[in-house]
Amino acid sequence: MGAPRILVVDDNKDMAQGVAMVLREAPAEVESAYTADEACARLGERAFDLVVTDVRMPGQDGMQLLDVIVERWPRSKVVMLTAYGTVQSAVEAMKRGACDYVTKPFNNEELLLVVKRALRERQLEEDLQRLQAEFEGRYVFEGLVGRDAQMLGVFDAVRKVAPSHATVLVCGEHGTGKELVARAIHRLSGRKGPFVAFSAAALPDTLIDAELFGARKGAFTGADHDRKGHFVEANDGTLFIDEVGSMPPLVQVKLLRVLQEREVLPVGSSTPTKTDARVVAATNTDLLRATREGRFRDDLYYRLSVVRVALPPLRDRIEDVPLLAEHFLSRRCSERGIAKKRLSHRATRVLLLHEWPGNVRELMNVIDRAVLFCQDDVVEPKHISFDEEATAADLSEPQSYEATKREVLERFQRLFVERLLHECDGNITEAARRAGLTRAAVHRMLKRLGIAAPHPEARRG
């Protein structure tokens, strides 16, 4: 960044030039204007980091100029100068957007101190905006938020699959963001048609059939008009079918035919209709297991899962909880038009130690309630309530964020290692291979966590 630019505004030319001379020692690039109108013209021509303006000027005064700058050039900081300084006028200037206030007569050191502080504040805001943009570019992706390696893998998969015509199966528990993934795929696909969402759960077979494939008037009781069906509505767009695993067998057959032939046959009609809807399906169940048990057609499963995107539960990416919480907190405060709030360390610890059975959706609800109940700038544990009034944390002793992070990571590692050893029947070599670790690293982890290594003979027995 080059030298900051400052505009000095004062109807007294000698005063304006004297102030400009002092401020060049900041160091800064300084220009002078002698009326509010001239100042506005300069501001319209180029950006200034700081405006130092007298309050009393003929015509438009400094307070009026301040209002214009706040409205039209909000990134420019404003410092007010006046020989008529009172507490009331200083408070008024700060309320209206000035960052500081200096009363004439002043010494040069005082003025330079105030100006340097204002410029430092301006630089910090610029750095924060840059970091926020970098952060959002990396960790906020099409409505999805995360820096966990699993989520970054999801972001990458969505980017790669979106431009294709492949069907996608999104797998994950309730509340993990399956529809957000589907919407992201649609937005990045370049398709001109709409995004249409449909849930196959808790609907009668006939109604699922009509909703998806359409129906002719009189085809069944209550069909008092023709229905296009979601496949036709989503033509040249994306059809998101949630809870696809709950579809009845006859609907599975029709869905398979649509995916194969790219045409639908409405209920009560003998004439098929062409469709170019791209299908993104979602499930919170193990569809592969359902195929083995005969509850879901295996040929339909393989048609739907050309690309499979797996969303991890929130408990498996616990380090994303503070990131998600701050994201939801900022968004809710902005939507309600209130000052931004932040989470205290103790509140963050409460969130980190919760199990999150409802995943990201539950976290969003918790933050929504906290925004409603918190009347201060900082969200504390007392503002946080869960759907089940229980948490694993004993909050009587405050802990730092790092201490809480270590506690949560140790719990995650313990669960991970125990599950891995169970799946590998206690075989440490196989467990190390699956985890991408050496045998020595697995042994060290077992020792640190106090988990007894399985005895070879116990495994054989």
Average pLDDT confidence is 85
Kindly report the name of the CATH homologous superfamily of the largest domain: P-loop containing nucleotide triphosphate hydrolases
Strand content: 5-15%
Query: Which range best describes the helical content: under 10%, 10-25%, 25-40%, 40-55%, 55-70% or over 70%?
Result: 40-55%
How many alpha or pi helices? 19
Largest sheet: 5 strands, parallel
- Given this structure, which CATH class of the largest domain is correct? Alpha Beta
CATH names the topology of the largest domain as Rossmann fold
What structural category arises from helix and sheet content? alpha/beta
Low-confidence stretches: 389-399, 457-461
Number of strands: 16
- The whole-angstrom Rg is 31 Å
How many domains is the backbone divided into? 4
Q: In one word, what is the shape? A: elongated
CATH architectural group of the largest domain: 3-Layer(aba) Sandwich
Distance between the termini: 70 Å
**Order of strands in the sheet with most strands:** 2-1-3-4-5
